[in-house]
Amino acid sequence: MLKVNVIGIGPGNPNLLTGEARQAIAESTILAGDKRMVGQFGSGKKVCPTIKLAELAEVAANADAEKDVLGILVSGDVGFFSLAKTIAGKLPQCEVKRYCGISSLVYFASRLQMSWDDAKIISMHGRQQNLVSAVLQYKKVFSLTGGDNSPQELCRQLCEQGLGKVTVHVGSNLSYPDEKIVTGTAEEIAEGNFPSLSVMMILNEKAGGPLRQGVHGLDDSLFLRGKAPMTKQEIRAVSISKLQPRPDDIIYDIGAGTGSCSVELALQAPLGKLYAFEMKEDALELLRLNKERFHCDNMEIVAGEASEEIDKTPAPDCVFIGGSSGNMAKMLDSLYARNAACRIVINVIALETLCTVVDYYKEKPDYDLDVVNIASAYNKKLGRYNLMMAQNPIYIITAVKKRKQDKRDGLKCGKA
C-alpha cells in the first residue's frame, strides 16, 4: 500500500515548517502540489506540479508502493480550508497521513499582535458566504479572499452597506520577502489594489444587534411593510422550526411577499443561499428594501412565476411556500423534479388549498405529512381594557421524504 503524506507547509516560508512536516517532505520520493510549492521543496525528488484530484490519483496509481512515498503539499494547515479535505478518502489503496502546518489565520494574527480565538472565521475564496452579515454581528472577522472577491471588492461591499468606517487589516504574500500588511478603513481599502489571494481581519466595535444567527421569529416591526402580505412573527417562528434549515442549505422562499421569511431564512443559512421567488411588482420592491435593511448578501430575488424559474437556480435543500398562485401541484412537481428529498413547509389559509395539498400527498406514499393549525390573537387597547383580536387560522404543513427503514428497527430486545 502506497504511503501518502499530506503536508501543510504553512504560509510558504520554509522557516515556518513544523519539524514533522520537514521530516515528511524529506522521506517523500515524489512531491505533488502547486507549482510554487514543489519548486521550493522538490530538489532531488520526482516533482508533479498539480493540485487536481484526478491527476493526484493518477500519480498515486503509477507510484511504486514498495519504493515510493508520495508527498502532497498544501498551503497553510491541513485542517483549515485546505485541499486536504478534498483529497480525504479519494486515494484508494493508499495509507494517507496528514501533517499540520501554520494556518494563514494563526500567522496573520501573530503579525498583527492580536488573539484570534474570538474571531468569526469565513472564506470568500471560491465561496459565497455572507461577509456583511458576519461583520454586523461579530466584532472581529477573519476572511480569506480570492477570485472576484478581492480585498478591495469586499470592502466596496462593506461600504455599500454602511460599514465604510470599520477597521480592516489586509495581508498579502504572507511570510514571503514581499509580504505586505496594510491597515485602513473599509473606505480606504476599497480604493486600494491588492492581490486577490489575500487575507483580511475586520474589526467592528459596533457589531451586534437583533440579527443573531440561530434565533428566528424577529419582531414584525423590524420589517418594512406595504400592501404585500407578510407572514407574522409567531407563524414564521413555527414554520422555520418545522423547516429546520442548516447553515449551508440552498433554500427557496416561494411567494416571498415582503420578504420576512426570506430574511429570516437567509440569516439562518449564512453559508448557504436563499432564493426569494415573487411575481408581484409591489412585493418585489419591498423584498429588495428588506434585503438591504437586513444586509442579506446571500439572498437572491427571482422575479416571476416560481415553477417557471426554479430550473434556473441550484436544486434546493429545503423550501418554504407562502403562496402558489393556485398552482400548488405543478409547483410541488417542479420542486421534487429538482430534489426529491427536499424538505418542504407550506403555509395555507384557504381550506381549498389545504385539500389540494393533502390530496397531492395521498399520491406520494414516500413522504410523511404533518399538519399543524395555529390560531393566534393580538391584544388591542380599548380604553383601560385589552381586547384580543383574532387572526386568520394558519395551517403549517410539513412534508418530509421517509427514510428507508433499517431491518433492525423492527427488532425488540427481550429481558436478559
From TrEMBL:
One of its GO terms (biological process) is cobalamin biosynthetic process. The lineage of its organism: Bacteria, Bacillati, Bacillota, Negativicutes, Acidaminococcales. It comes from Succiniclasticum ruminis. This is Precorrin-6Y C5,15-methyltransferase (Decarboxylating). CDD domains: AdoMet_MTases (cd02440), Precorrin-6Y-MT (cd11644). GO terms for molecular function: protein methyltransferase activity. It comes from the Bacteria. Pathway: Cofactor biosynthesis; adenosylcobalamin biosynthesis. Signal peptide: none annotated.
